[in-house]
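Internal tracking record. Fields below are filled automatically when a chain is submitted to the structure queue. Please do not edit lines marked as system-generated. If the sequence contains nonstandard residues, flag them in the REMARKS field before resubmitting.
Queue: standard
Priority: normal
Entity type: single polypeptide chain
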Amino acid sequence: MSGEIPDRPREDNLSREFWDSAAREDAMWHIATGVAPNREAFFISGRQETDIFLQLAGIDPDENATVLEIGCGTGRMTTRLAEMFGRVIALDISAEMLDRARSNLAHHHNIEFLHGNGADLSGVTDSSVDVIFSYIVMQHIPTIEGQLSYFRESRRVLKPGGKAAIQIRSSAFRARGLDWAGPFAHRLSGRRVFSRAWRGTRIPRAALLAAASGSAVSESGPKARVELVPHGGRHLWVLLTRGER
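SYSTEM-GENERATED OUTPUT FOLLOWS
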């Protein structure tokens, strides 16, 4: 034996493997825990929540606009986005999830599916999308830097004046307690929820604001105006509006 310690698997590979497995095991439960007892309820809940959160973010439907959904899963919210916007780019790290989304949303002809690499928005052109939307996705990313990368990339791909609504974990004390209570309850029911690819992590406020706005000296690319909006006991919405330059 050489005595060398094997390299730890990259976090994006960990996430890809976890979510591919989750899609095969029970995609609806892993996407919308406790919300959807059946397929009909699954998609109804996605439609309702899409409307609620876009309204919260001040984003209006626009048949001439392109929306990028980060973490589309099997299309629970994508189907509603396809009704509200002219073009949808549905991105996910899991090929298994994307296969199910393509099947579920075959009746929509304005959706482009993109297999993400878990690290950035490669495949999406600079200044090409009007809206970015992401719900219950960032909270599962295992690293702080992984999440910050998506905020930097969001500034890159948004058109000038474009808007993003991206949900992350709240760092409030109550939110931390709820986030631990949930996994313990799920584990008792036999679910695999202690993986880093499920538990994710929280972003320090200063780092979040720097990456989302681009205002720090260390940040490059377009600038954005940022608003943080708490929602419920566990979630924080990060609302970006890209500057005109």
